Task: structure prediction
Amino acid sequence: MTRIPRGVTLMELIIVLALLGIMAGVVGLTLHSARPVPGGNPALAAVAAARDSAIRTGLTVVMTVHGDGSPLWATAFPDGRVVADMPLGIDLLTGQHEHAR
Result:
């Protein structure tokens, strides 16, 4: 009569835990050395975040950004369009500022 192996051996468990520890160490070192993205226009960043939120949730997002001068009013639609009270120069497909490409 042959035995059917059930479960894992102690050696398999130790190997898996060692691999997980190595991967966690690599990720920890990578996160520590990550640099922040260079600052751009905070108003455009807020509009891009509103556009992303509108696309993900499927709801229209209306926002006001208080920047350097007067407030900027913008509406982001679920299809990716952004309508604002001033021209933003945002690409409809990518959501990036047209001068950033």
In short: The two ends are 69 Å apart (CA to CA). Residues 42-91 form one domain.
